[in-house]
Each structure stands twice: as structure tokens, then as C-alpha cells.
Design brief:
alpha+beta, 3 domains, 461 residues, six-stranded mixed sheet, 25 strands, five-stranded mixed sheet, globular
Length: 461
């Protein structure tokens, strides 16, 4: 089914259509860290009146009967917890009167006027959500269902995610990334239908390093080695697809790249309990605190992209956690020098596509563009770190800039039982001589999903 972006009564919706897509809205700008006021008090227990009023709002949207008076009635019945639903609604609102009323309603429920934000160019949705994340405001009663009903009006493909009442997902953090679900079958090479998705690249064509001269030696690749096989994934191709399913060294991998988090990872997808099919990883179009929400096309199970843990669906029910191989961030020249037998994804990806040198045109250069809440102040938001997740549950982040200052071909870094060495232009980590899966990420992303992480060299004494 092809979908196109439409707006019904000031709400972004999708509908069946063969017409060309309207571009999805630009994401809200956010600036963090910043100082947030004291969190508002939130009551406990049910609020049946507010729930009923929000249900009424949802009923009016498909019929095109949405009215700002319905929003006002919801605000009148709501409490501070329901500011989350105002934020969710605001993400899809295009009617300025409704936007203004929602912003005023947030002030009513929380006592905070976001029009006083010190960064006035930030979009209201981003400001509102950053406050709620930082405050850790509790979710309102029946939140998962209400939010799922709203998001399901925009994209039917998201409905099963919200339907799993056992999901280990903090639904407060889930937001729309401005694109829609990639639900194309494995091996599909046609682009997503309207209004568009981030299309995974399945089993791309690979060429020898000698045939990779189309890619500049100074340009970035994400390198993966399995057994005797190494593959380089050019950053510009990964920026377009953000997900690759591929076999390397007789092992099956799903390789997501979260452009917003600066994080490419390599998950083994061929070690599941008996009777389960190999997952086919896809991009959902949803985010969790600016981290891409990936899912398995076969079972509909959602994964925590940073840990590989299935957090919903049949794969969560059987406790699936995908192991990780290491991803080395390197220049192409340094990677092929260190791995002369490497292959690299073909210039056209094997699908006849043309990729620009910088498809995102520097989109993420000025900081996070989606809400992330407060940030661990030990490093700047987008300082890259090499993240290590150990078997005993400990997490360690190594500042990449600091590693580059001290690591050479003959010098390494040892901290908390982990040894970091050079690999091409990037790094690998070992524990007791055994490699552990690592990947780079922006500090804001690593630290928010691993808040107890150690940080080298800051915590090294």
C-alpha cells in the first residue's frame, strides 16, 4: 500500500494515494544542555475525565472535525502528567490556533511558559518535550493506548508496536522522526512509496578495495570484520539507508546507522532460539530520545538500538538480545591500508542509485535536532565516544578525541579492564585478549542510554 502525507483538520495524517508525496515537516530544533525550572507536581491515580476528553479528540481527527475547543476541554480536565499528550499532539499539529492553544495548555498544566525559552528559535514541540524528559514527568493513565491511537492515525504500521502491553519501552520518549515505516520485503530495491521512509539496503553489491577508488581516501567508512572478511560501509551511503542486512564471513548481520546519534552498530542476527527466523532489521520512522527505533520486519518486534535487546513482540517474549561485533570508524584510506583484502559497498549500492558526498548537507553539525532532555555535562553533546558494554553490565565510554591523542600502532589505552588499540583510523577494544563489540556514538546518546557509564579519561583519576 502506498501512502501520501495529508493534513486533516490541521493534523498530519497518512492516506492511501498514488500521488507524489508532500515533504515531511522539518524536525524541531533543540539546544541542550540548558537550565530547566523545578518539575511540576504530578498527581497519582486515574483521571477518567481527561482520558475521555482525549479519546474524543482522537475520534474527531479522521472525520476532519478536529476543533481547538476539544483541546481546551482536554486541558481543563487534565493534570501535569497529560502534558505528555499535549506534546504528542503538538508533534503533528499544523493549525496555528491549535499550536498556540497547546503551548498555553502546557503552561496551564505545568506552570512553565515555554515562550520564555532562552533559545526563541526552537520549535515549541522540542522545548516542551525537552522539559518533560528532564523533569521525568510521569506518564498519564492509559498513556500507551492513547498515544498509540494517535500515532496509528498517522501511520498504521506503528499500531502493533503500541499494542504490546508487555513492551519494555518508555513510551514517553518515543516521537516521530519525520519519516514513515520501512515495511518493504527483504531484497526490495525500489524506493519507499509516498510519503517516504528511510529504505534499508539489503545485501548490497561489494567490490574489492582496488575498485573502491570512487570513494575519497579521506572520507569516512564504517568497517566491520568477521573472520577473514572485512567490509567498509561508506558514510554517504549509510546516511541514505541507515540500515543494512548483509552476510559477512558466513555470519548474518543487521547494521543500523543512527545519523542523529553518530552511531553505526553491527548486530549478529543469526543466533536465535530454535524455530525463529533470522530478523530483518528495518527503520520504523520513530525515535527514542533522538535514537532510531529499529524493528524486525518478520515478527514486528522492536529493538533497543543501543543494546540489541528486543523490547517488544515475540522476540522479547523469548528474551532475544542480539550480540554485537565491533564497528570501526575510519577514513577509507586508513581502513584499506590496515585491511588490504577488504571489500567496500559498490558506488551505486548495487541498486543503480547515485549518492551525494554529503546527503544530509551538514544537518547534524550544530547539535541535536530532536528532544533529548538534560545531558550529562562531563562532555559536550556531540563529542564522539567509543562505547563498550561488558558482560557484567558495566559500560565504559572512551573519548575518541582523547584516544587519538595517545594511541599509536605501538601504544594502547588500558582502563577498567578494557584495552583499546588502533584499527585503521579507528579503534577496537579487548578484555583479557578477547575482542568485545564496540561502536562510536555521540556522548549525549551513549550517556542517556547508559547513565551510569564510566568515562575515560575523566574518571580515570
Amino acid at each position: 500500500m502506498k501512502r501520501s502525507l495529508v493534513v486533516v483538520a490541521g493534523i498530519v495524517l497518512t492516506a492511501c494515494s498514488s500521488e507524489s508525496a508532500t515533504p515531511s515537516p522539518e524536525p524541531a530544533m533543540t539546544v541542550a544542555p540548558m537550565t530547566y525550572p523545578t518539575a511540576p507536581e504530578a498527581p497519582a491515580g486515574p483521571n477518567d475525565e481527561a482520558t475521555a476528553r482525549f479519546d474524543e479528540i482522537l475520534e474527531t481527527i479522521p472525520a476532519g472535525a478536529f476543533d481547538v475547543r476539544d483541546v481546551q476541554e482536554f486541558i481543563d480536565a487534565a493534570d501535569a502528567r497529560h502534558a505528555w499528550l499535549l506534546s504528542d499532539l503538538l508533534r503533528f499539529l499544523r493549525d496555528q490556533n491549535a499550536v498556540d492553544l497547546t503551548v498555553d495548555g502546557f503552561a496551564t498544566l505545568t506552570g512553565v511558559d515555554i515562550t520564555d525559552d532562552p533559545e526563541p528559535e526552537r520549535a515549541p514541540w522540542g522545548v516542551m518535550t525537552d522539559h518533560l524528559i528532564t523533569w521525568d514527568t510521569p506518564a498519564p493513565p492509559d498513556y500507551q493506548r492513547l498515544k498509540g491511537d494517535l500515532f496509528g492515525l498517522v501511520e498504521e504500521g506503528w499500531t502493533p508496536f503500541f499494542a504490546d502491553t508487555d513492551a519494555a519501552i518508555d513510551w514517553r520518549w518515543v516521537s516521530w522522526g519525520g519519516v514513515f515505516i520501512d515495511d518493504r520485503p527483504l531484497g526490495e530495491t525500489e524506493p519507499c512509496g509516498p510519503p517516504g521512509c528511510i529504505p534499508a539496503l539489503d545485501d548490497p553489491a561489494l567490490v574489492a578495495a582496488a575498485d573502491g577508488d570512487w570513494y575519497d581516501d579521506e572520507a569516512i567508512v564504517f568497517g566491520v570484520t568477521e573472520g577473514d572478511d572485512s567490509v567498509a560501509f561508506p558514510k554517504n551511503i549509510m546516511q541514505v539507508h541507515e540500515m543494512v542486512n548483509i552476510t559477512i564471513g558466513d555470519r548474518r548481520f543487521g547494521i543500523p546507522y543512527c545519523t542523529l546519534c553518530g552511531s553505526a552498530q553491527a548486530f549478529y542476527t543469526d543466533e536465535l532460539p530454535d524455530g525463529l527466523d533470522t530478523p530483518i532489521l528495518r527503520t520504523s520512522g520513530l525515535l527514542s530520545r533522538s535514537n532510531k527505533v529499529m524493528y524486525d520486519l518478520t515478527t514486528g518486534s522492536v529493538f533497543d538500538t543501543f543494546t540489541g535487546e528486543a523490547v517488544s513482540g515475540p522476540l522479547r517474549d523469548v528474551g532475544v538480545v542480539l550480540d554485537q561485533n565491533s564497528v570501526t570508524v575510519s577514513s577509507w584510506g586508513e581502513w584499506k591500508q590496515a585491511h588490504p583484502d577488504t571489500t567496500i559497498v559498490a558506488e551505486d549500492g548495487g541498486i543503480g542509485r547515485t549518492y551525494g558526498d554529503d546527503p544530509l548537507d551538514g544537518r547534524d553539525d550544530d547539535g541535536p535536532i530532536f528532544p533529548i532532555g538534560d545531558v550529562d555535562p562531563r562532555l559536550g553533546n556531540q563529542v564522539p565516544v567509543l562505547g563498550v558494554l561488558l558482560d557484567d553490565g558495566r559500560t565504559i565510554a572512551f573519548s575518541v578525541d582523547a584516544l587519538r591523542d595517545v594511541i599509536t600502532d605501538t601504544a594502547d589505552v588500558r582502563y577498567a579492564g578494557v584495552t583499546v588499540t588502533a584499527d585503521g583510523g579507528g579503534f577496537l577494544a579487548t578484555v583479557d585478549g578477547d575482542e568485545v563489540g564496540t561502536h562510536e556514538a555521540f556522548w549525549f546518546a551513549w550517556s542517556q542510554f547508559h547513565p551510569d557509564t564510566l568515562l575515560w579519561p575523566n574518571d580515570a583519576g
